[in-house]
Design goal:
The complex is a heterodimer of chains A (821) and B (517). By secondary structure, chain A is mainly β. Helices cover 5% and strands 38% of the residues of chain A. Chain A has 5 helices and 56 strands. In chain A, strands 44, 45, 46, 47, 48, 49, 50, 53, 54, 55 and 56 form an 11-stranded antiparallel β-sheet that branches. In chain A, a hairpin with a 5-residue loop joins strand 11 and strand 12. The N terminus and C terminus of chain A are likely disordered. In chain B, a hairpin with an 8-residue loop joins strand 10 and strand 11. The longest helix of chain B has 25 residues. Classes of the chains: A mainly beta (821), B mainly beta (517). Chains A and B meet through strand 38 and strand 45 of A and strand 9 of B.
């Protein structure tokens, strides 16, 4: 037996990764201070720096036997079966089982059976190992000899070919990036001998503005020799799979694995230094600020979530009255830790967060909670998919209080503001407001009572305003109406006008801003009013140029209340009017009292998906070609940012968590006399079920959709709703079907499918089939309850009847996790 | 270039020089006119643009506009909302918006009929109704969902209004620029009143709008890309092939369409043609080989008349929009402009001319619709494809002030040249002077490569300009015409009877057929 030692893969990769690191160095941020290593966090020789993960390296591969995979790899072929692979193109009536031949620890191309593709996609930067051999009996020449290929998403084919003493065009020989780059050298072994590819995939990196700052790169090592080095491509894919080509030649493959590379921040996945466990203890800064304010009525609950993979909060602005008790729920839906730290008005929060970098080891011990007197309340550092609650009393002083995540590198974009408005209720609006429009050229307010109005009328929204007519210059306005003082006391009137204006209450001037000038300064006047109605009069004139008019009042125990349609910039913060979320960043669609419908491409929801977010914190995608709720999840509904920015391409992962796929992918709801062992009726991708017809949906008074479709002459309607609160863990998704028509003998509805279905307390616990969406694995575990449901093989089915009610629920709340990476 | 006329005409550079000189001279005379008389006329003297405020709670990325009873409008948006609008035909302050529907998948077609609002969304035509009078739709009835969709963002579906037979047309964008990965991608289909779908035209690439002319003939604009050297206006005749072969594999699924057309020759096979043969990657040559191929009725000359053609709106206002009755107004997303097109039929083929009309819209125009009062409503967005307008989205209106601009009204092909008619009587001296005109001929290669420049440029000589006795038209004689070419004609020197220059002194005529004398 010939034992031909292939180059030691592990050895060569160590060398390569050292080289890679050196090549990377110029692009990493320069240390801010001389005593920090690249990245600006760790000192040279810093003993507190996280230790690189320990990985058992791969075993030695010889021509006779492959070495074992490294301990952190995902093994895609271990010599036994092709369960990680599928047929790439599935024709009608075919399942997607990989059709190639497995024997003696390898698998072999079955000519004309089509490509194989991995079932999973792998996100981020990755390292791949593939071993292959061309037939030992040489048949054909040039491209006809041992031809196959390796396809990684976003890159050209890496050619597999017998290139040992077999001439062909160079950009098509073994290890060429097909029709683009020949390999640096021809490192081919003889036909029949096992050869290796070690491939490093670096995905494109975007900067904070979304611009690609680093292109995707591909490096290929053939039999231990670098043959393609950092080739750049325009792909912006952030994940990908591996496909192997059927080029009609019986090429063999074995020992295929992939592992994720954390090139950007390996420290983040490092293990703590020995003895440093205590550093994750509670932060040094107290979590509740001291305040002298008496607790106000019931607390205002504010929920701030992080958006997955966007390094943003879903809420970038919220308002609260001064002195109000606040219960803040901070939920981290992202894949990395975040916190929420509130600072005093005017704080440069980016600088405050970055200051920690001066003493990173101390900051690490504080879990990156800054030691800064301007910070007055904060959450703890919250791990992925966990949450924290903080109770505090809003400051007495109105103003804008910024909040920010102080975890290294996040502050620049991960921030928001809490606007503290004046405490107390608002005063009543004006009533019976009328206007009189005068025309004239004045430098000061005239005696309007001596003039004839040009036009007069009512002001429907009872707010003083200028856009009542087309006149831009040389006009005057007099507003008259009633003020309703809610109690006896001193009231202050505020006025800013461009040009002149004045406010009169019961005929007495209380605020005066006469003359030609801009509306920069706010004039105030105080007046004592008895409880009840008072005459309000506002006079205004415009000479030329800019025209503005702002008026407001505040009273005993009452917050500033606008009297004008437009708000003076100084008052906006006092009024604490919440702003809509930023339109161009995270755009979560929030479900209120009514369900929200969103028809678009949702990951796992198919091409004809109708996403519905229901009150009660559960959402579904109802699909108009598979006729049912194909996926469901709980928590937040959906982020529309992907589809509502740019060209809007791609599929969007649900925003919530615990996604389930109760009844299989691309399958249909009904079957007649199904055998427990037979595959359930399905629709191959690109085809349509010809015995089902989609009819649309209607909305009831509560705006809940009822979906309509037809099957074999039956008219089916389907309505879903949520009973309870799915976020809290006590919610059920209730699905009600009504079926009109003569139900065929033996017709059944599939409620669920999975590897395990167990009856429990009148319901069924289902462990559904493996569910990975966008690389995120989900447990796909749920409970189903329906009267008359029976287990049939891998399916939970229900003999069809005119009225069907099914409920789906999730495992209890403490058990949940989404997309655990 | 192998055309006999082209080779017999070696004076390109000389003609170019002449044209530059004459342009300079004309520019000087225009300046002179401006000095001596009232300020030079501008577009807004005739067609002012009114910009509406839009609802604060949304980004009104208008993708479709339809007229509703009682002067109301319906606006469908890229975000899948439908807003009904009242008061848009009066002062802007009167505009009121009501959210009629939301959560739809991108609405690029709206049509109203018998109390139902039909929407074309990504994968179906549905009809919507508000049964309770709440102002919000509560019934979303699927009319037809028979076409394929693969999940690719490029697979837009554009819907028409009802045609003269009561059918709706849906244009199905290809999957990307080249391929058709789902059934009938790259096709125009008709939806009959009973919901059945009739495959109607192949060869669609990436439409930007669909509309009708005054006779109810159907047209769409397609965008520059593979097999499209420039954006163009295409006449949708049932049974025809519109030029991009990417979707022709679906002929198997459309027996009503007859045999699959011969594929246009990919350029890889075009190097072997014999010297003296017509260039094979010219659409004019391929027309003779591919009998189902319909040439563009008008090339919307790339870079000059826009980069991204969109809506088609026909003026049926019987003069309320000015002198351009029955002409087509074509939007452009990228340039944020509206162009004007005049069509005629020669040998059964539609062809015509496009003129600049109006610029200065706030965002990239996608949808446009004119009401019977001659008010042109437009809207759009710049999302994903930048637009000169600069605003992320807009909803605007164009009105006619009642003042007639001095323009070329129509441009007709004649056997040896063109005949121009004008909106106002011309000054016979300038209009009868051949130096007042200059012309250029060119075309685009017809090939798989994305887009492409102008090719086969020739400067024909204008030999005669004869003003009609009523001074309302001029007959131009060319030394030669080239079938299939765009004939670019400048009329910078022509003055109206009262001394004004032409507001937009250029037109681009696509000469598919040359009429007999």
């Amino acid at each position: 037996m010939r034992c031909l030692p292939l180059t030691l893969v592990a050895f060569s990769l160590v060398a390569i990764s050292t080289f890679l690191h050196a090549a990377e160095a110029p692009s990493t941020p320069e240390p801010k201070k001389e005593n920090l290593t690249p990245g600006g966090i760790w000192k040279p020789g810093d003993i507190s720096r996280p230790r690189p993960r320990v990985v058992t390296p791969p075993g030695y591969t010889t021509n006779d036997a492959p070495g074992h995979a490294p301990s952190d790899a995902t093994i895609l072929f271990d010599g036994k079966d092709l369960s990680h692979w599928k047929r790439d193109k599935v024709a009608a009536g075919q399942d997607d089982t990989a059709p190639w031949k497995v024997e003696n620890g390898y698998f072999e191309v079955v000519p004309k059976s089509g490509y194989l593709r991995t079932r999973d996609k792998f996100p981020g930067d990755t390292q791949w190992h593939i071993e292959w051999a061309t037939p030992s009996v040489v048949v054909g020449k040039s491209q006809g000899r041992g031809n196959s290929g390796v396809f990684l998403t976003g890159f050209p084919e890496i050619q597999v070919l017998d290139s040992f003493e077999n001439d062909t065009y160079p950009d098509g020989q073994a290890a060429a990036l097909y029709h683009q780059y020949p390999p640096l050298v021809n490192a081919s072994r003889k036909p029949g001998e096992w050869q290796t590819y070690d491939i490093i995939v670096e995905r494109a990196k975007r900067d904070a503005q979304g611009k690609v700052e680093k292109k995707a790169r591909l490096t290929v090592i053939h039999n231990g020799l670098v043959v393609q080095w950092g080739r750049e491509f325009n792909s912006t894919d952030q994940e990908g799979d591996l496909a192997l080509q059927d080029h009609g030649n019986p090429v063999r493959y074995r020992n295929i694995w992939v592992r994720r590379l954390n090139l950007a921040d390996p420290d983040s996945e490092g293990t703590p230094p020995p003895g440093a466990v205590a550093s994750t203890a509670a932060p040094a800064v107290p979590a509740t600020p001291k305040t002298s304010a008496p607790p106000a009525a019931e607390p205002k609950t504010v929920t701030i979530k992080t958006l997955r993979a966007q390094m943003r909060y879903d809420t970038t602005e919220f308002a609260v009255e001064a002195g109000r008790n606040v219960k803040l729920i901070f939920q981290n839906d992202d894949e990395m830790p975040h916190n929420l730290c509130f600072f005093a008005p005017g704080t440069d929060v980016i600088a405050a967060a970055n200051k920690q970098m001066e003493k990173p080891e101390e900051a690490l011990k504080r879990n990156w909670i800054p030691d800064d007197p301007r910070m007055w309340v904060h959450s703890k550092l919250v791990n992925p998919h966990e949450r924290d609650e903080i109770d505090f009393v809003a400051p007495e002083k109105p103003g804008v209080y910024p909040y920010v995540c102080t975890f290294p590198g996040h502050a620049a974009i991960m921030q928001g503001k809490m606007i503290v408005g004046e405490g107390g209720p608002r005063l009543p609006a004006l009533s019976g407001l009328k206007f009189q429009l005068y025309l004239g050229d004045w430098k000061n307010l005239p005696d309007f009572s001596a003039l004839q109005p040009h036009r007069e009328g009512e002001v429907k929204d009872n707010l003083v305003q200028l856009k009542l007519d087309d006149y831009k210059n040389d006009f005057g306005l007099v507003f008259t109406g009633k003020l309703d003082a809610p109690k006896d006391g001193d009231y202050t009137f505020l006025l800013a006008s461009d040009d002149g204006g004045r406010i009169l209450v019961d005929g007495h001037k209380v605020a005066d801003d006469d003359g030609v000038h801009p509306a920069t300064d706010v004039r105030e006047g105080k007046v004592h009013l008895s409880k009840g109605a008072h005459d309000f009069r506002l006079e205004y004139f415009q000479a030329a140029g800019q025209s503005e008019l702002y008026a407001a009042w505040r009273g005993p125990g009452y917050a500033i209340t606008p009297l004008s349609k437009t708000l003076h910039p100084d008052w906006k913060n006092l009024l604490a009017k919440p702003k809509k979320h930023d339109e161009t960043t995270g755009m979560p669609l929030v479900v209120g009292a009514e369900p929200v419908i969103y028809r678009n491409f949702i990951t796992g929801g198919g091409d004809r998906g109708i996403a519905v977010g229901y009150p009660g914190n559960a959402s579904i995608v109802w699909n108009a070609e598979y006729f049912g709720p194909v996926i469901a999840w709980r928590g937040a509904f959906i982020d529309a940012a992907r589809h509502w920015n740019g060209r809007g391409g791609g599929f969007q992962l649900p925003l919530g968590f615990d996604v389930i796929r109760p009844a299989g992918e691309n399958t249909l709801p009904f079957a007649i006399h199904p055998s427990p062992d037979a595959p359930w009726p399905a629709v191959p991708k690109g085809e349509r079920a010809d015995d089902y017809t989609w009819k649309g949906y209607e909305l009831d008074a509560q705006r809940y959709p009822t979906f309509h479709y037809e099957w074999k002459g039956l008219k089916i309607s389907e309505r879903l709703s949520v009973d309870g609160d799915a976020f809290a863990g006590n919610g059920h998704l209730v699905r009600v079907l009504k079926i009109e028509g003569q139900i065929p003998e033996g017709a059944v509805l599939r409620l669920a499918t999975g590897s395990q279905i167990q009856p429990a307390d009148g319901a069924f616990h289902v462990t559904g089939d493996k569910l990975v969406l966008d690389g995120h694995p989900f447990d796909n575990a749920f409970q189903v309850a329906a009267e008359g449901a029976v287990i049939s093989g891998k399916n939970l089915i229900l003999p069809l009847r005119p009225d069907v009610t099914v409920s789906y629920s999730w495992p209890s709340a403490h058990n949940h996790h989404a997309a655990a990476q | 270039m192998s055309d006999a006329i082209r080779t017999a005409f070696p004076l390109h550079s000389l003609m170019k020089t002449f044209r530059i000189l004459s342009t300079l001279l004309l520019a000087a005379s225009v300046l002179h006119a401006a000095d001596s008389k009232d300020p030079a006329p501008k577009e807004s003297d005739y067609y002012p643009i009114t910009t509406f405020e839009t609802p604060k709670e949304t980004a009104l990325e208008v993708g479709s506009i339809e007229l509703l009873p009682e002067g109301k409008l319906a606006l469908g948006t890229r975000r899948g909302e439908i807003w009904t609008v009242s008061g848009a035909d009066s002062e802007p302050v009167n505009v009121k918006y009501q959210l009629f529907a939301s959560g739809q998948h991108e609405i690029l077609g709206l049509a109203y009929k018998d109390g139902w609002l039909y929407e074309t969304n990504r994968y179906e035509v549905a009809r919507l109704k508000d049964r309770t009078g709440s102002g919000r739709a509560d019934l979303f009835e699927t009319v037809c969902d028979k076409w394929g969709v693969s999940g690719d963002y490029h697979e837009y579906a554009w819907g028409s209004r009802f045609d003269k037979n009561g059918d709706l047309w849906v244009l199905l964008c290809l999957t990307g620029s080249f391929t058709s990965d789902a059934e009938f991608r790259g096709w125009a289909v008709r939806i009959k009143p009973d919901g059945t779908m009739v495959p109607t035209c192949s060869g669609i690439r990436s439409p930007g709008g669909i509309g009708f002319d005054a006779d109810g003939e159907v047209y769409f604009t397609d965008n520059q890309g593979p097999w499209r050297g420039a954006c163009n206006l295409q006449h949708l005749i049932p049974g025809t092939f519109q030029g991009h072969p990417g979707g022709n594999k679906w002929y198997d699924h459309a027996p009503n369409m007859g045999p699959r057309p011969v594929d246009p020759l990919p350029e890889a096979f075009q190097v072997n043609h014999k010297k003296g043969d017509p260039d094979p990657d010219r659409l004019e040559a391929e027309r003779k080989r591919i009998k189902q191929l319909v040439p563009p009725a008008i090339y919307i000359v790339y870079g000059k008349m826009g980069n991204s053609s969109s809506f088609i709106a026909c003026d049926l206002s019987k003069g309320k929009f000015g002198p351009f009755q029955k002409q087509l107004f074509i939007g452009d997303q990228s340039h944020s402009i509206v162009s004007r097109a005049f069509l005629e039929e020669v040998h059964g083929v539609k062809q015509g001319v496009v003129f600049p009309f109006l610029k200065g819209f706030q965002s990239g125009l996608i949808a446009g619709r004119m009401n019977d009062n001659g008010q042109l409503f437009v809207g759009g967005s710049d999302r994903g494809w930048g637009a000169k307008g600069g605003k992320p989205f807009c909803f605007e209106r164009v009105d006619w002030t009642g003042k007639v601009p001095f323009e070329v009204l129509e441009m007709h092909a004649r056997h040896d040249g063109f005949e121009l008619t004008f909106t106002e009587p011309v000054d016979p001296k300038t209009a009868g002077d051949i130096a007042s005109y200059s012309a250029r001929q060119f075309t685009y290669a017809y090939r798989e490569e994305y887009g492409g420049g102008e090719v086969d440029e020739v400067f024909p000589k204008i030999t005669q300009a004869v003003v009609a006795p009523d001074h309302k038209s001029v007959r131009l004689t060319f030394d030669h015409l080239i079938q299939g070419d765009i004939h670019e004609l400048h009329f910078d020197g022509v003055r109206s009877a009262d001394g004004h220059p032409i507001l937009h002194p250029v037109g681009y005529y696509t000469l598919n057929e040359i009429p007999e004398s």
